[in-house]
Structures are given as C-alpha cells and as structure tokens.
Amino acid sequence: MMSSPDLPARLSPDRSRLCSFEHALRTAQQLRRATGVPHYVVHGVPPLQAFKVTMRPPAWPDRWLAMVA
Length: 69
Hints:
By secondary structure, the protein is of the alpha+beta class. The chain has helices spanning 7-10, 14-18, 21-35, and strands at 39-43, 51-54, 64-68.
C-alpha cells in the first residue's frame, strides 16, 4: 500500500487544478444551469478529493463551502 507522503508525488500535475475549489464551483454552476437543481460545494476527503459537488447539503455544516442556487 502507498503511504500518504508518497501519494501527491505520484499523482498527475493536473490534479491540483481539477481538484481546486474554483473548478468545483464552476462544475456546480454548470450542473445548476443544466439541471435547475441547487448544487453544493463541500470539503471532500483530502488529498484525493479536496472538494466535491453534490445535490444534497452536507450532513456536517462545517463541510459546506458554497451553494449554487
């Protein structure tokens, strides 16, 4: 199994851009326009998923970063 300190060095350099808050927010905005349903940007599970987009508000309010309504 790969240890956590080695993990970032083995990941694609594009990962930091794709996993950024800005990318998650743009994705939420695009999904909101496409579906008409509010989307939320929440903290994911670092380091692999720093932010995630979901249609449901997070169970833990401290993980909620943005709502695109």
